[in-house]
Design goal:
- The protein has one domain.
- The chain contains four helices and no strands.
- The longest helix has 20 residues.
- The chain is elongated, with a radius of gyration of 18 Å.
Length: 85
Amino acid sequence: MKVVAIIVNLFFPGVGSFFVGKVGQGIAQLILYIIGLVLIFTGILAIVGIPLCIGVWIWGLVTAATSPTQPVQVEVVYKNEPPAA
């Protein structure tokens, strides 16, 4: 699964992080990458957009490559207690 995540992150930074179970980081990477692309297309702000896109791209690759082999699953158990009298 890591290999698929790395390959997907090569083309779509942030999406590969979803595959390894890091949804929050994936959303942040995707949003920052889109912001970087918008800045690049404005022309003048390309000075900020290009390094932002490169940084997010590297961050996505590192996230996918260093993730555990299985996504961490958290189980929440609710304890039902009778109301206090």
